[in-house]
């Protein structure tokens, strides 16, 4: 938000004005005026934070309220910064801090992406392939695994067949 105040700069009428800005927007004004990037390349949140056991539990439970409290208390991240990083409004962040649950998967994904949280820590997947990005598929099982699986299936099938035969024999033998 820009407003004009008396100060430096000419208006052609003898008065001097300068642009004043509200708190938190100086980086955007500077970026627009001087071509300096508005968002710093250095993330405001240390990625090591997400390795802490208590934070991992919070992420696994998708407790965004607790996550935002941890960010505020441990990393000194403001609601405005969280909002800018996650594409939320500051009022929406405020509601979440006050206890509103976040259930929408797309919002959870934006939060992960904006805060640099690996999606798998919240149990979220990437696109069509899912969270697993490996090269092995079920069709490529090793021979010894396939043989063991076949053996177990044959044992189970044999037990099922035996129970059917025994039940059938019991019915025919019971009538004699």
Fold and architecture overview:
The chain has helices at 26-34, 53-60, 64-75, 79-86, 90-97, 105-115, 143-174; strands at residues 2-10, 16-21. Strands 1-2 form a two-stranded antiparallel sheet. It has 176 residues and is mainly alpha-helical. α4 (79-86) crosses α6. Mean pLDDT is 74; it is low at 1-26. The chain has 3 domains: 2-34, no CATH class; 47-122, 434 Repressor (Amino-terminal Domain); 138-174.
Compact overview of the structure:
With 176 residues, the chain is mainly alpha-helical. The chain is built from seven helices and two strands; from the N terminus they run ββααααααα.
- Alpha carbon gyration radius: 31 Å
How many beta-strand elements? 2
Low-pLDDT runs? 1-26
Helix content: 40-55%
Q: Approximately what portion of the residues adopt beta-strand conformation?
A: 5-15%
Strand order of the largest sheet: 1-2
Elements, N to C (H/E)? EEHHHHHHH
Present the secondary structure layout.
Elements: E1 2-10, E2 16-21, H1 26-34, H2 53-60, H3 64-75, H4 79-86, H5 90-97, H6 105-115, H7 143-174
Antiparallel strand pairs: 1-2
Helix pairs in contact: 4-5, 4-6
Which descriptors apply to this entry?
176 residues; mainly alpha; 9% strand; two-stranded antiparallel sheet; 434 Repressor (Amino-terminal Domain); single chain; 3 domains
